[in-house]
Amino acid sequence: IHEISHGPTGVSRLRLLPGFLSPEEADWMFSKLLAELPWSQKTNYRQGEAYGEPRLTCWFGELPYTYARSTMAANAQWHPLLSTLRAAVEQASGRSFNSLLCNLYRDGRDSIGWHSDDEASLGDGPTIASISLGDTRVFGLRKRPPPDENGDFTYVEQIRVPLSHGTLLVMDGATQDDWQHQVAKEYHDRGPRINLTFRTMFPEPEGHRPGTKLRFTSMRP
Ligand SMILES: O=C(O)CCC(=O)C(=O)O
């Protein structure tokens, strides 16, 4: 358990469990999910311009999920293996989750840019638990600069966590308020990697446009 900062919003905490799944379990789960999940490339919008995400995704949950001006439809048909994994993650983390965003990084050129999981639909101080399968990729975190830095991240604290096959990472407390995270492109060969991010979604607040951030932040690229 790593407390990566205290304030301004509260304690930001990472819980890292390498070997949460044994290599054998992780191997067959990776192959099964790669073959059986309905992977597709989502189209997002930035300043009215459409762009395809540099990764494939799929969504499970009774509510739709909107981010970057585009919506993943509700999908209550959980793959049986994902239901089993959800129960295991709930037991390990002591939290419950009603939704799952799955990411597939096909190779080292696939990525996710700096963002926080802080849409209003995720509630205040959300806990996000993620399982990594496949090739190791570096999970980067950077602290939000204080307001007088005017959004300049040049001198902020950064943390790099390699997430290997079978690792569970739980982010909670103020992590989504005070930090951003990314999985950057790599310039040497990487095999495919699946990341399963369990979260809890709430209905969009009355009168909110779906996908609204809790505050103004950069959008998930
Ligand atoms: O692939 C990862 O480890 C991170 C995924 C992520 O940041 C997200 O789905 O919000």
UniProtKB/TrEMBL annotation:
Keywords of the record: Cytoplasm, Dioxygenase, DNA damage, DNA repair, Hydroxylation, Iron, Metal-binding, Nucleus, Oxidation, Oxidoreductase, Ubl conjugation
Family to which the UniProt record says this protein belongs: Belongs to the alkB family.
Protein species of origin: Cyclopterus lumpus
GO terms for MF: broad specificity oxidative DNA demethylase activity; metal ion binding; mRNA N1-methyladenosine dioxygenase activity
Catalytic activity: an N(1)-methyladenosine in mRNA + 2-oxoglutarate + O2 = an adenosine in mRNA + formaldehyde + succinate + CO2; a 3,N(4)-etheno-2'-deoxycytidine in single-stranded DNA + 2-oxoglutarate + O2 + H2O = a 2'-deoxycytidine in single-stranded DNA + glyoxal + succinate + CO2; an N(3)-methyl-2'-deoxycytidine in single-stranded DNA + 2-oxoglutarate + O2 = a 2'-deoxycytidine in single-stranded DNA + formaldehyde + succinate + CO2 + H(+); an N(1)-methyl-2'-deoxyadenosine in single-stranded DNA + 2-oxoglutarate + O2 = a 2'-deoxyadenosine in single-stranded DNA + formaldehyde + succinate + CO2 + H(+)
Biological processes, Gene Ontology terms: DNA alkylation repair
Domain called Fe2OG dioxygenase: residue spans: 96-202
Official protein name in the record: Alpha-ketoglutarate-dependent dioxygenase alkB homolog 3
UniProt keyword Nucleus present: yes
E.C. designation(s): 1.14.11.33, 1.14.11.54
Signal peptide start and end residues: none
Keyword flag Ubl conjugation: yes
Cofactor(s) required, per the database record: Fe(2+)
Main location: cytoplasm
Function as written in the Swiss-Prot or TrEMBL entry: Dioxygenase that mediates demethylation of DNA and RNA containing 1-methyladenosine (m1A). Repairs alkylated DNA containing 1-methyladenosine (m1A) and 3-methylcytosine (m3C) by oxidative demethylation. Has a strong preference for single-stranded DNA. Able to process alkylated m3C within double-stranded regions via its interaction with ASCC3, which promotes DNA unwinding to generate single-stranded substrate needed for ALKBH3. Can repair exocyclic 3,N4-ethenocytosine adducs in single-stranded DNA. Also acts on RNA.
Enzyme class, broadest EC rank: oxidoreductase
Subunit structure: Interacts with the ASCC complex composed of ASCC1, ASCC2 and ASCC3. Interacts directly with ASCC3, and is thereby recruited to the ASCC complex. Interacts with OTUD4; the interaction is direct. Interacts with USP7 and USP9X.
Gene Ontology CC annotations of this record: mitochondrion; nucleoplasm
Subcellular location: Cytoplasm; Nucleus
